[in-house]
């Protein structure tokens, strides 16, 4: 299981992110605490508090996934 924090600055970033991961044939979960949604669900993602970094979880060791989502990674705080 891989876990990284992602952060979106605008609606376009969210839609680009969803379009990228939607082409990958694994499950992605996004959220914090007890509020977790399917990261491929536009409605689910927009239901989160996107002003804060969200934890993205997925079960794959494919390094190409990390390359694709790197633009959305949250800066270390």
Describe the structure.
With 77 residues, the chain is α+β, with helices and mostly antiparallel strands. The protein has 3 helices and 4 strands, in the order βαββαβα. The chain has a 4-stranded antiparallel beta sheet, with no helix packed on it. It is globular and about 30 Å long. The mean pLDDT is 94.
Across the major sheet, the strand order is: 1-4-2-3
Largest sheet: 4 strands, antiparallel
Radius of gyration: 11 Å
Inertia-based shape: globular
Helix content: 25-40%
- How many helices? 3
Average pLDDT over all residues: 94
The span between the termini is 22 Å
Low-confidence stretches at least 5 residues in length (pLDDT < 50)? none
Strand/helix succession: EHEEHEH
Total DSSP E strands: 4
- Structural class designation: alpha+beta
What proportion of the residues form beta strands (DSSP E)?
15-25%
Concise summary:
The protein is of the alpha+beta class and 77 residues long.
Features:
four-stranded antiparallel beta sheet, 4 strands, 77 residues, alpha+beta, single chain, 3 helices
Topology:
Elements: E1 2-6, H1 11-22, E2 28-32, E3 35-38, H2 42-46, E4 54-58, H3 63-69
Antiparallel strand pairs: 1-4, 2-3, 2-4
């Amino acid at each position: 299981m891989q876990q990284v924090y992602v952060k979106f600055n605008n609606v376009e970033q969210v839609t680009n992110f969803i379009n990228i991961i939607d082409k990958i044939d694994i499950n992605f979960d996004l959220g914090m605490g007890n509020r977790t949604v399917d990261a491929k669900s536009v409605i689910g993602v927009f239901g989160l508090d996107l002003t804060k970094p969200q934890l993205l979880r997925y079960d794959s060791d494919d390094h190409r996934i990390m390359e694709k989502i790197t633009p959305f990674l949250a800066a270390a705080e």
